[in-house]
Amino acid sequence: ATPTALLVGSLRGSRLGVVIAGAEVLEHARGVDTILLDKTGTVTTGQMRVVDVTVAGESSAGLGAVDRGDPGASGGATVHPTHEQRTADLLRLAATAESASEHPIARAIAAATDERGVLGHFENLPGHGIRAEVDGHTVEVGRNATHGGNRLDYEKQSRHDPRTTVTVSVDGTFAGTIVVADTVKPTSAAAVRALKDLGLRPILLTGDHEASAQAVAASVGIDAVVAGVRPEGKVAEVTRLQATGRRVAMVGDGVNDAPALAQADLGIAMGTGTDAAIEASDLTLMRGDLLLAVDAVRLSRRTLRTIK
Ligand code: ADP
Ligand code: MG
Description:
With about 300 residues, the protein is α/β, with parallel strands linked by helices.
């Protein structure tokens, strides 16, 4: 390879909004035939918002919906907390617990209320959620198979407004669910089409539930989905594809994507992503726009043609 040609390629890359870790990475892109796309923050904006809160034993609170009132509160004879109080309590506990996490779901929940309790010990449960002490209680927020996350998710699913349901438990007891909505980025569908035109097979790879993964995949035109995988499961998927003779590119933004980005033949980080993802990758896209990943693949092919 002629270093000059590679350098021209990388300079062109920087003008396009792609930062290349070293000129040799363009060679890694040679023969890439499969592209794994992380869902949250890569195909979607990852700027989530809380759209529903359900307290255990009650029906949906429907945030932003018309207030249905609470019959128990009107007479003043009852000491039971009102529906609104129970919802506010659940949100306060969850928001306090999540205030120490950088995850998009955590940010959405933390932004849903200004009320805060006293936060004690906090721990991340990778690929699952978080656990924290709040006001002396153990609060867990995360994915929960036992409360039918998939089913709940599916009922409320919408294509362009993909939703994820998380479970809140307090001292080991199911306390309620919180639904957050994400948004598919406006250019993601066009990028997937262009990647297919370049001969790449796109696969959506996510730690999220199958239902929200399928909704996003359908909205951008991806027909292969690998859902519910932890960070090590993402690496295993890259390795599995490589073992079948495929050359794998991967695009991601999260800490949970970093090991898979490092394992991929061509790791591509969203510039909007975490440092861990950027450090593990060969290329960084300056804007959080998947069309830049298409440019990067095209660029590497053009550069290689110049060299030959
Ligand atoms: P992705 O692969 O889509 O970026 P993650 O691996 O980060 O997803 O998370 C997988 C799932 O774990 C989320 O869909 C959610 O159900 C749960 N989860 C992760 N982090 C949190 C958190 N801080 N709060 C609540 N749930 C979380
Ligand atoms: Mg992500």
